[in-house]
């Protein structure tokens, strides 16, 4: 489908990729991983056509569509949220204008039998048919569903995009890309500004999406949930594993161990052979054996061990100065921005040594309460810091606040005081800024490198209460693991605002959930909290169900004198409907299976480079894809109906 052939990209003397090749197949779910600075974001730019390689090429079918979500983007402030997302349906909007124009022209004519009039009618019919094919009847409801899935409320739809923060603007852009339904998604850190509920929604969307996907993410749980293949970029090469991220880590380790074992064995054989040649090189009686071994070495295919980039972040927080038992305590905290109430009558307590997480949807007040704790915001109620509490704060936008005109060394030298000034280079080296790297300007650093630099600043002064607002954004997997270990080992108190489930797992023992202007305390880890939430939501759903919405007959079971007769007739009719729905589900599933088999056969053919320009194959593939989308909609409707009918039967039996 998309072929990357012998791709090389260099910047002067620095080679980012060298002669890499791989294929992206029609239904691939690819996680693109590697350390910060390995070239992941650059590779997505090359695939999207925004960056030209030094050599090699990227080929794809004609009319192939790509949806690219970069980490950093330019925003347009002219539209409301809904209007901005509507840009995804520009072709539909153009068709609607053309249909309106044609209708107006037709209404003004009365030459009903002329060729010109009939030609206009044909154009109108074609435009209307195309509008229906493109989903012109329901695109507004699809916009609404997608925006709500990404955390927007109906009241946000008519607000100007300029009123929203960068994270919410990214969601708007993500909504546009999802609604365009391209053949290939290229998503660079899509979860960075999403809360846990929105990440879950995005996971479900991507798991059922019919196209291909290449995603960069440092969220291990997200990668495991949505990907089935992993491409690792390491030291200019790409390693391809047909498994999700967690399994890739295991296989990479096993593969390297096997390579090392095979390499050592081969080296022993080579050494023994060379010793034999050297020992008997000049003995006529051994000439044949010597020549045979020389030829053996010449023909031997040498085992190569994959290069492995083992540079890693080395973090150890300074010992925490002693503080009082109560680190921070809030009573009756209330905060409004104008008429917008964010927090209402909040009580909480964080004690010495606790590791606590703030979680909840974006906009529910997590960062606001954090800033109140830091005494950066005016508020109602009382906030009290404990005895000798010293705060170390990492802001959500900490990396963005760095002065781009300074070098790495100057950034740290500017804030370092005392004896630590003599150890600045050692400290930077521990954070993978070594040698000449320290002379790089902040402006040229990647997001992960800026985050690491901001973390160095956090270590310059000892603290006993670390307040970290989204510290893992832009950090690679290994750096996150090392930061997590350092926080586990930290003997002070930690408050984390984060949506990264894997990062919080095993680290925090108490969760504060922010919802509806209140907070709720949950004792236990993050997955304990998520499990409880699923149970709570289920109970709420059951309680909120109205008997009238189930079946009017079930509500009248005790009211009618002919209840038994009616119940029998209704049950019989209901069972007929269930059987019919079951047949429709099975029929749709069988058809989908047949289409999938055909798609797999064509996919295998398309993997052959000889078929790379076979337009007939691509057209057949696209036709089957559209047919698949239609059948999936049929299956979803039939399956939903079947579930509803079964629920009604359960209610009747109750």
Automatic annotation (TrEMBL):
Domain ABC transporter, residue spans: 2-260, 328-541
Origin organism lineage: Bacteria, Pseudomonadati, Bacteroidota, Bacteroidia, Marinilabiliales
UniProtKB keywords: ATP-binding, Coiled coil, Nucleotide-binding, Repeat
Polar residues bias spans: 546-563
Residue ranges that the Swiss-Prot or TrEMBL entry lists as coiled coil: 571-612
Signal peptide: none
A molecular function GO annotation: ATP hydrolysis activity
Region described as Disordered: spans on this chain: 543-564
Family: Belongs to the ABC transporter superfamily. ABCF family. YbiT subfamily.
Protein name: Probable ATP-binding protein YbiT
The keyword Nucleotide-binding is annotated on this UniProt entry: yes
One matching Pfam family: ABC_tran_Xtn
InterPro entries, sorted: AAA+_ATPase, ABC_tran_Xtn, ABC_transporter-like_ATP-bd, ABC_transporter-like_CS, ABCF_ATPase, P-loop_NTPase
């Amino acid at each position: 489908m998309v072929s990357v052939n012998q791709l090389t990209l260099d910047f002067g003397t620095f080679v980012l990729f060298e002669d890499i090749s791989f294929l992206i197949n029609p239904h691939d779910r690819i996680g693109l991983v590697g350390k910060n600075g390995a070239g992941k974001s650059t590779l997505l730019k090359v695939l999207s056509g925004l960056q030209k390689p030094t050599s090699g090429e990227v080929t794809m079918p004609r009319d192939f569509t790509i949806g690219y979500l970069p980490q950093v983007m330019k925003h347009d402030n002219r539209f409301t949220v809904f209007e901005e997302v509507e840009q995804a349906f520009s072709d539909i909007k153009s068709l609607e204008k053309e249909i309106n124009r044609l209708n107006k022209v037709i209404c003004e004519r009365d030459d009903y039998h002329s060729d010109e009039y009939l030609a206009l009618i044909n154009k109108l019919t074609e435009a209307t048919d195309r509008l229906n094919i493109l989903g012109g009847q329901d695109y507004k409801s699809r916009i609404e569903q997608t925006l709500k899935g990404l955390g927007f409320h109906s009241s946000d739809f008519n607000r100007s995009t300029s009123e929203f923060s960068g994270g919410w603007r990214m969601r708007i852009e993500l909504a546009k890309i999802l609604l365009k339904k391209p053949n290939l998604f290229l998503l660079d850190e899509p979860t960075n500004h999403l809360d846990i509920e929105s990440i879950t929604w995005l996971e479900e969307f991507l798991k059922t999406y019919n196209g291909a996907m290449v995603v960069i993410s440092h969220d291990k749980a997200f990668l495991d949930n949505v990907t089935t293949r992993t491409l690792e970029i390491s030291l200019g090469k790409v390693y391809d594993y047909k498994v999700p991220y967690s399994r890739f880590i295991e296989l990479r380790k096993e593969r390297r161990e096997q390579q090392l074992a095979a390499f050592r064995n081969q080296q022993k054989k080579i050494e023994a052979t060379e010793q034999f040649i050297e020992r008997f090189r000049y003995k006529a009686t051994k000439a044949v054996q010597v020549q045979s071994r020389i030829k053996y070495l010449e023909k031997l295919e040498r085992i190569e061990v994959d290069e492995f980039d083992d540079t890693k972040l080395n973090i150890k927080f300074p010992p925490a100065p002693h503080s009082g038992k109560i680190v921070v305590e809030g009573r009756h905290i209330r905060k409004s921005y104008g008429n917008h109430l964010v927090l209402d009558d909040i009580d909480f307590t964080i004690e010495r040594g606790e590791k606590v997480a703030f979680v909840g949807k974006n906009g529910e007040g997590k960062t606001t309460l954090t800033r109140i704790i830091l005494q950066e915001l005016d508020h109602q109620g009382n906030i009290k810091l404990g005895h000798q509490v010293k705060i170390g704060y990492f802001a959500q936008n900490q990396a963005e606040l760095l002065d781009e005109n300074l070098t790495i060394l100057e950034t740290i030298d500017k804030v370092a005081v005392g004896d630590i000034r003599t150890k600045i280079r050692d400290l930077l080296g521990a954070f993978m800024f070594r040698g000449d790297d320290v002379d790089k300007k902040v402006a040229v650093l990647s997001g992960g490198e800026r985050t690491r630099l901001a973390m160095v600043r956090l270590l310059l002064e000892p603290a006993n209460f670390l307040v970290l607002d989204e510290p893992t954004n832009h950090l690679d997997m290994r750096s996150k693991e090392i930061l997590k270990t350092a926080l586990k080992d930290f003997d002070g108190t930690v408050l984390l605002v984060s949506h990264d489930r894997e990062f919080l797992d095993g680290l925090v023992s108490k969760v504060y959930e922010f919802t509806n202007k209140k907070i709720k305390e949950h004792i236990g880890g993050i997955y304990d909290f998520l499990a409880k939430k699923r149970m709570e939501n289920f109970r709420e759903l059951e309680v909120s169900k109205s008997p009238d919405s189930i079946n009017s007959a079930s509500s009248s079971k005790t009211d009618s004198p002919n209840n038994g007769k009616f119940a029998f007739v209704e049950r019989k009719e209901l069972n007929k409907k269930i059987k019919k729905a079951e047949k429709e589900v099975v029929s749709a599933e069988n058809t989908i299976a047949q289409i999938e088999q055909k798609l797999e056969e064509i996919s295998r053919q398309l993997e052959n480079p000889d078929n790379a320009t076979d337009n007939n194959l691509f057209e057949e593939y696209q036709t089957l894809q559209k047919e698949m989308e239609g059948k999936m909609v049929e299956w979803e409707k039939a399956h939903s109906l079947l579930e509803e009918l079964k629920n009604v039967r359960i209610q009747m039996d109750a």
